[in-house]
């Protein structure tokens, strides 16, 4: 009878061990995906995000990268503790999971509170960002020493299929258009089929005339990134609760097996 109970207890420990190991693999992969999204945003999209002259949006990419790295490290500790059946490593893993979970809850509460407090000023902030982008495009495009801004604007207009900050007519007041000797009306990157000096015609058949201009396209992209950040946070938080439950059970079973 005693041997049967010991065998049953050992089988339960083995099942928990492999369940927790499988969980850690999923947790590790989730961290890798989060890290990849953050790096992709920072490397591929940072050029035109920087046009807004605001660190708020680029901060979301750094948060994704940091969160992904922490999840990967935590997952590796969990895998090592599970495979070697080291209660000390499992306790460290449990504490890390708990700390990350509490940080996520705190960050979510602070974000909600700050959003409620700043809500009356959000439209003012939005107008300032729109104005910043418009001035950057009008004053720095094709100007000496502003090659990176020029490339970012061209990339923004081509990738999002838009022209101007809010409208193609924004380019009328730009320093480059006013000083140009080639009678350009808009940059060549506004054209649906870019070619040299194609920006001399601003007819709808030739250039993009998207309602709201590039700023709305850019804001939609940034909003989607923030949604991804929120969804990832909720998903990881759920995984952490499952992981903490498995870890507690495995630690208890290992302690019982030891005695």
Automatic annotation (TrEMBL):
InterPro entries: Tetraspanin/Peripherin, Tetraspanin_animals, Tetraspanin_EC2_sf. The keyword Membrane applies. Its main location: membrane. It is found in: Cell membrane; Membrane. The chain crosses the membrane at residues 21-43, 55-78, 90-113, 226-251. Keywords: Cell membrane, Glycoprotein, Lipoprotein, Membrane, Palmitate, Transmembrane, Transmembrane helix, Ubl conjugation. It comes from the Eukaryota. GO terms for cellular component: plasma membrane. It is a multi-pass membrane protein. One of its GO terms (biological process) is cell migration. Interacts with integrins ITGA3:ITGB1, ITGA5:ITGB1, ITGA3:ITGB1 and ITGA6:ITGB4 and with CD9 and CD181. Interacts (via the second extracellular domain) with integrin ITGAV:ITGB3. Interacts with ITGA3; this interaction modulates ITGA3 glycosylation pattern. Interacts with F11R. Interacts with RAC1 and CDC42; these interactions mediate physical association of RAC1 and CDC42 with integrin adhesion receptor complexes. PANTHER family: CD151 ANTIGEN (PTHR19282:SF487), TETRASPANIN (PTHR19282). Belongs to the tetraspanin (TM4SF) family. This is Tetraspanin. It comes from Fundulus heteroclitus (Killifish).
């Amino acid at each position: 009878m005693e041997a049967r109970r010991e065998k049953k207890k050992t089988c339960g420990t083995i099942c928990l061990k492999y369940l927790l190991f499988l969980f850690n693999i999923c947790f590790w992969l989730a961290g890798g995906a989060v890290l990849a999204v953050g790096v992709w945003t920072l490397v591929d999209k940072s050029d035109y995000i920087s046009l807004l002259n605001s660190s708020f949006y680029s901060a979301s990419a750094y948060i994704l990268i940091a969160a992904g790295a922490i999840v990967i490290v935590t997952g590796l500790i969990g895998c090592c503790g599970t495979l070697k059946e080291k209660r000390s490593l499992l306790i460290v893993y449990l504490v890390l999971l708990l700390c990350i979970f509490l940080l996520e809850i705190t960050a979510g509460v602070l974000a909600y509170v700050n959003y409620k407090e700043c809500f009356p000023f959000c439209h003012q902030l939005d107008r300032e960002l729109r104005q910043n982008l418009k001035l950057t495009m009008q004053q720095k495009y094709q100007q000496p020493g502003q090659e990176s801004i020029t490339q970012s604007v061209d990339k923004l207009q081509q990738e999002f299929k838009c022209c101007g900050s809010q409208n193609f007519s924004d380019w009328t007041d730009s320093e480059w258009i006013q000083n140009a000797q080639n009678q350009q009306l808009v940059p060549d990157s506004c054209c649906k089929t870019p070619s040299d000096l194609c920006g001399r015609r601003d007819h709808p058949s030739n250039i993009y005339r998207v309602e709201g201009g590039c700023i709305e396209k850019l804001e939609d992209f940034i909003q989607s990134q923030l949604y991804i950040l929120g969804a990832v946070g909720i998903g990881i938080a759920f995984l952490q609760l499952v992981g903490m439950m498995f870890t507690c059970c495995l630690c208890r079973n290992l302690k019982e097996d030891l005695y």
